């Protein structure tokens, strides 16, 4: 029997910065997993992946990553994706730092 | 130290200009990622988990103060103010941006540093004994030969697209500090009938198929080094497998064909090409050797050292742990620990790099070294200067007295940075170091090497750790396998797996049980962990690691 398709997001590395990015439903690339398009249909997933892979001059190494649906949107199901969305554990660098900096900025 | 010629400077400038153009063509879309990837790898540029990573070669682990300061400057200007020293005597920047990498390389070139062949299927940065030119047990300084190999292998047209990477290590001492037996080729300087030559070892390696190298030639006259290496590489290039990445290293060729068949091929090819070598390599070697002439060692009283050692227990502990005998009796080799308890093994801040550069300039005849064990070294220090050096190191978080002890851990970057990793290694190292520092047992335990890899590629050399830890992904959970009894010295031995792995939360208590078992069973404090392991074997350690199994068996 064919396995049920589990929810996915399209993720890749940014060509210029090298950091982790996610494809959104409106065809943008976001640095936040929460903004990623959650794909629940296998055929649609393949189309979105092809769409990502075609953007050779923007992204590197696009692939489908499994997610679970949490209260704030998609969440990683594997620890590798958890590190990718937050950053290294030995320094407060990467996305965790960027997130803190953006939340500290006063709102206009 | 080797000083660049006009030719070297021109070559590096042209190579950097070439790579700059390749980066531009990638950005403007003329090159696809598939086309660009082998080019960027050849220039040390990886794409990792969170960012690009630039791997800069520290050829055979030797640096001068200007180079160290430049590494600090590049870290501040283009990265995050620190660098990570690796198990192949490289420095890695974890956060560069693609557009800025050509500028970083140009800045490094100002002091003769580069990232050429620190990756890719080429002959990699040649590693060597970090105590070369300084240690008391040395036959000859291996660095001139390492430099000769670097010049020969850099951009060598026949060896730019090998079936797989190729690593060479050279040592000049009987005590092997360069892990020559687990490199693709290991070279050990030996003397026979007053002649200098090499024992040539081939086919060692760690990774998913760990193997101890075999002797290809027990005595190669040193004048034959390059033609012989060329014969080895040509043989590998022809018969090395290209059908399977995991079977492409020379160790597999040696394993499949047998050492005798490999030797026949190498010797035949060597006989063919040897006459075509005109001797230009000898002239080059002579010039390189002049650059590595030892400094004029100062002679004066060492009383200040003895007085400080008697008066200050902190200094004494550091001196007893971090110093090694120098060939000149009034001097010492200082190992600066980049493993302060709880810190990331091998990381140095830009400020720490500048401090080490200043110390080298003032006290170590302008020389610094980086070891494959991820520490820094002041190779030639007059003993009377040691108290002042220690004071400066203390002020800068660099005076940890733990060289060769349980917290002097080798750890690869693991899943905190590496795209290939299957589990983290850095936090495991941090937790072990912190735990044993709390227990205040480190000096009582004595010499013990823990080496941690975050995947089977074994950058953390776990197979040759007295205690090796391998991080794996088991059904979506970080799991750590333990090996015991490995040894990376001249008695190279691969560690033995103890049994099932441990979770991230269980691994530190598991290491603690191993160490407690050793402390209980050693015949005296003089018997090291490795000696106890060799005397007793795996049984008592397994019993401590898996008490439930023993209970079930009873």
TrEMBL record, chain A:
InterPro entries from the UniProt entry: DUF2849 (IPR021270)
Region (Disordered): 71-108
Comp. bias intervals (Low complexity): 97-108
Protein name: Sulfite reductase (NADPH) hemoprotein beta-component
UniProtKB/TrEMBL annotation, chain B:
UniProt keyword terms in alphabetical order: 4Fe-4S, Heme, Iron, Iron-sulfur, Metal-binding, Oxidoreductase
Keyword Disulfide bond among UniProt keywords: no
Domain Nitrite/sulphite reductase 4Fe-4S: residue ranges: 119-270, 408-544
Pfam family, one: NIR_SIR
Gene Ontology MF terms in the entry: 4 iron, 4 sulfur cluster binding; heme binding; metal ion binding; oxidoreductase activity
Alphabetized InterPro entries for the sequence: NIR_SIR_4Fe-4S, NiRdtase/SiRdtase_haem-b_fer, Nit/Sulf_reduc_fer-like_dom_sf, NO2/SO3_Rdtase_4Fe4S_dom, NO2/SO3_Rdtase_4Fe4S_sf
Residues in Nitrite/Sulfite reductase ferredoxin-like domain copies: 52-111, 345-395
Keyword Oxidoreductase tagged: yes
Protein name (Swiss-Prot/TrEMBL): Sulfite reductase (NADPH) hemoprotein beta-component
Native source organism of the sequence: Jhaorihella thermophila
């Amino acid at each position: 029997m064919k396995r049920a398709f589990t929810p996915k997001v399209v993720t890749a590395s940014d060509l210029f910065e090298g950091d982790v990015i996610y494809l959104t439903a409106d065809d943008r690339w976001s640095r936040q997993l929460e903004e990623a398009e959650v794909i629940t249909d296998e055929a649609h997933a393949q189309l979105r992946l092809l769409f990502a892979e075609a953007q050779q001059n923007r992204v590197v190494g696009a692939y489908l990553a499994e997610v679970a649906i949490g209260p704030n949107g998609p969440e990683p199901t594997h620890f590798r994706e958890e590190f990718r969305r937050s950053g290294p554990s030995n320094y407060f660098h990467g996305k965790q730092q960027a997130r803190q900096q953006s939340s500290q900025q006063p709102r206009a | 130290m080797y000083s660049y010629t006009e030719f070297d400077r021109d070559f590096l400038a042209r190579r950097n200009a070439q790579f700059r153009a390749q980066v531009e063509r990638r950005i403007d879309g003329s090159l696809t990622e598939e086309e660009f990837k082998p080019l960027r790898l050849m220039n040390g540029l990886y794409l990792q988990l969170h960012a690009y990573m630039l791997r800069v070669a520290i050829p055979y682990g030797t640096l001068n103060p200007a180079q160290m300061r430049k590494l600090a400057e590049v870290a501040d200007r283009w990265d995050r103010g620190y660098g990570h020293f690796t198990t192949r005597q490289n420095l890695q920047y974890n956060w560069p941006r693609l557009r800025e990498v050509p500028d970083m390389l140009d800045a490094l070139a100002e002091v003769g540093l580069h990232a050429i062949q620190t990756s890719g299927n080429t002959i990699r940065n040649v590693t060597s004994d970090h105590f070369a030119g300084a240690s008391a047990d040395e036959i000859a300084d291996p660095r001139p030969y390492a430099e000769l190999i670097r010049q020969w292998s850099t951009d060598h047209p026949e060896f730019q697209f090998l079936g797989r990477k190729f690593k060479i290590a050279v040592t000049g001492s009987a005590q092997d500090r360069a892990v020559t037996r687990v490199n693709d080729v290991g070279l050990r300087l030996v003397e026979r009938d007053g002649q200098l030559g090499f024992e040539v070892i081939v086919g060692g390696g760690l990774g998913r198929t760990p193997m101890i190298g075999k002797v290809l030639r027990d005595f190669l006259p040193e004048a034959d080094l390059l033609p012989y290496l060329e014969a080895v590489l040509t043989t590998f290039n022809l018969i090395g497998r290209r059908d399977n990445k995991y079977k492409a290293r020379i160790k597999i060729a040696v394993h499949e064909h047998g050492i005798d068949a490999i030797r026949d091929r190498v010797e035949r090819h060597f006989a063919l090409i040897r006459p075509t070598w005109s001797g230009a390599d000898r002239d080059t070697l002579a010039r390189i050797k002049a650059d590595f002439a030892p400094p004029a060692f100062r002679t004066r009283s060492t009383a200040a050292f003895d007085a400080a050692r008697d008066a200050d227990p902190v200094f004494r502990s550091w001196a007893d742990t971090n110093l090694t005998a120098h060939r000149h009796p009034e001097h010492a080799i200082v190992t600066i620990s980049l493993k302060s308890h709880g810190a990331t093994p091998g990381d140095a801040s830009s400020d720490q790099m500048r401090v080490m550069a200043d110390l080298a300039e003032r006290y170590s005849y302008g020389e610094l070294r980086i070891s494959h064990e991820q520490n820094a070294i002041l190779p030639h220090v007059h003993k009377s200067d040691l108290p002042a050096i220690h004071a400066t190191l203390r002020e800068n978080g660099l005076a940890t007295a733990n060289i060769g002890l349980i917290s002097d851990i080798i750890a690869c970057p693991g899943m905190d940075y590496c795209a290939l990793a299957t589990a983290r290694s850095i936090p495991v190292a941090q937790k072990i170091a912190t735990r044993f520092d709390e227990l205040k047992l480190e000096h009582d335990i004595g010499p013990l090497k823990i080496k941690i890899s975050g995947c089977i590629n074994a950058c953390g050399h776990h197979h040759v750790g007295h205690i090796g830890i391998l991080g794996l992904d088991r059904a979506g959970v970080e799991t750590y396998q333990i090996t015991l009894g490995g040894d990376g010295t001249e008695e190279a031995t691969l560690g033995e797996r103890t049994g099932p792995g441990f979770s991230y939360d269980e691994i530190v208590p598991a290491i603690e049980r191993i160490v407690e078992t050793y402390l209980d069973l050693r015949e005296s404090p003089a018997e090291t962990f490795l000696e106890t392991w060799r005397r007793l074997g795996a049984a008592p350690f397994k019993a401590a690691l898996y008490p439930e199994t023993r209970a079930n068996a009873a």
